[in-house]
Amino acid sequence: MTEQLLKINQLSKSYGAISACENICFDLYPGQVLGIVGESGSGKSTLLNAIAGHLNIDSGEIIYVDPQGNTQNINQLPEIKRRWLMRTEWGFVQQNPRDGLLMKVSAGGNIAARLLDTGWRNYGKIRETATYWLEQVEIESKRIDDLPSTFSGGMQQRLQLARVLVTQPRLILMDEPTGGLDVSVQARLLDLLRSLVRNFHLSVIIVTHDLGVVRLLSHRLIVMQKGKVVESGLTDQVLDDPQHPYTQLLVSATLTP
Amino acid sequence: MNCSLKIENLHKSFTLHQQGGINFSVLQGISLSLNPGECLVLSGASGTGKSTLIRCIYGNYRIDCGSVWVKHESDWVDLPQLLPHQLLAVRQKTIGYVSQFLRVIPRVPALRVAAEPLLEMGIDVEIAYSRIQQLFTRLNLPERLWNLSPTTFSGGEKQRVNLARALAVNYPILLLDEPTSALDVTNRQVVMELLEERRRGGCAMIGIFHDQELSSIQTTQFQIYP
Fold first, then answer.
1. B64 → chain A, closest CA residue
2. A122-149 burial, b if ≥16 CB within 10 A, otherwise e?
3. CA–CA dist B167, B161 (Å, integer)
4. A248 with B105: Cβ contact below 8 A
5. Averaged confidence pLDDT in chain A
6. CB atoms A243 and B59 under 8 Å
7. If you average pLDDT over residues B51-80, what whole number do you get?
8. How far is the C-alpha of A196 from the C-alpha of A145, rounded, in Å?
9. Do A234 and B59 touch (CB under 8 A)?
10. Which of B84, B88, B103 sits opposite A215 (nearest CB)?
11. Where are the domains of chain A?
């Protein structure tokens, strides 16, 4: 398992005079969770959205290695292919589940959406698959016909995961997935994410400002400040032996119960 | 090389940017080698860098210079030179580490916390759980605790979960940072017997222990000077 899944080369993006991402480089390997931390405005969400193709980058490359071993330059892919990728081999989990779910469609319908997009037509099979994924994210299958608005925040977030996981993606991008959840719900989601990563050999890029979350979830860590990567390494290295002044500040400012 | 681990001229210092950028040097030119079946006990006064050395070997701390050669599968690798995913592979198969503290996700039961390294290796859940249950039994961890989260456990109970976690995998190298500090005399004895069995089986170990624990295990000493 030494072949990269994703290679980011000198990615830059600015908003006018403000440089949101400057020469960002990193590799992601299969089965790995990469955390991106930094304070608000450090450029971490811009980076995630740039990788997801939600915004255009100024320069640099985003190289994806597909299951056949072919490399694809994401920002040079035709729009239609990029959208296809985001619906199949990639997935995006929003901080606010209401942004990632169809709120007027049942839980089962939400999970089925990506299947319908990719050509599934057999109703029985779709329902069976939706039920399976509901169970994988620990939602009772009898809730399949309920609207997401009748779910708690933690359940909505898990439904959003199921909605993405249904096409068995290889790469999932997550923007503060545990933000806004109370701590006990957060713990449950973290535990679930860990099992899913292991059982389905997922690669994940997770943006968060919560060092506790990355400590428990991510293998590797990137620390961003003012659009630049100031430190990177294995999560325990960065958190236990931070080198950069900014990382030392972040770690020392964290409350550990 | 017939040894399992070879450290050459390891230096480690810390710079505290939040405290005026002071720099202090902890390890200055440590060299040692460790053979299979050897248990090397680190000694030295408090603050001489015993834990720091163990963390440097595990790659938890990044070193200033030097080498940490380890035999991983059939190759020799220099840990500080490895890419993150390569170091993860070494930790998964070759080097086990018992830290002083156990870090866990709040709601995960002890059984699964301890079984995690086995599950990461792709071992079947049933087999992994039964191996952990055997270890828990041997370590006298009461069965009523097995399905509870260790967050509420006492220090000694947490330490035994941590030990079971590391001892469940047959690592060729074990790093032990005061693995018995929170245990009573009986359980210390159990742990030291387990470690002695491992040593006889060819496991190479580096550890920090208290003197009174060392009667039941054959050791060599390594003194760290300030």
1. A243
2. eeeebbebbbebbebbebeeebbebbbe
3. 10
4. no
5. 93
6. no
7. 96
8. 24
9. yes
10. B103
11. 224-257
With an 8 Å Cβ cutoff, is B62 touching chain A?
yes
List, for residues A135-165, the tens digit of each pLDDT value. 999 999 999 999 999 999 999 999 999 999 9
Angstrom CA distances, B212 to A199, B54, B167, B204, stand at 44, 21, 22, 21
Kindly list the residues from chain B whose CB atom is less than 8 angstroms away from the CB atom of residue A243. Answer: 15, 62
Structure tokens given for B196:
């002695």
Residues of chain B contacting A216 with CB distance shorter than 8 Å: 103, 105
Cβ-Cβ contacts under 8 Å, A245 against chain B: 17-18
Structure tokens at A116: 């319908």
A109 in Cβ contact with A68 (< 8 Å) = no
Contact B84 A194 (CB under 8 A): no
Range B61-77 average pLDDT: 95
- For residues A31-53, average pLDDT: 93
pTM of the model: 0.92
CA–CA min distance B107, chain A (Å): 7
Residue A76: how many other CB atoms lie within 10 Å: 10
- pLDDT, tens only, A62-73: 999 999 999 999
**pLDDT tens digits, A17-30:** 999 999 999 999 99
Give the nearest chain B residue to A250 (CA atoms): B18
Chain A contact for B24 (CB, 8 A cutoff): no
Q: Out of B17, B62, B106, name the one closest to residue A237 (CB).
A: B62
- What Cα–Cα distance (Å) separates residue A177 from each residue in A41, A44, A55, A164, A181? 18, 14, 20, 13, 9
Task: Yes or no: say if B63 and B56 are a contact pair by the CB < 8 Å rule.
Answer: yes
ipTM score: 0.91
Q: What is the pLDDT confidence band of residue B223, given thresholds at 50, 70 and 90?
A: confident
3-state secondary structure B108-132: CCHHHHHHHHHHHCCCCHHHHHHHH
Q: What is the C-alpha separation between A171 and A99, in angstroms, rounded? A: 19
What's the mean per-residue pLDDT of chain B? 92
A243·B62 Cβ contact <8 A? yes
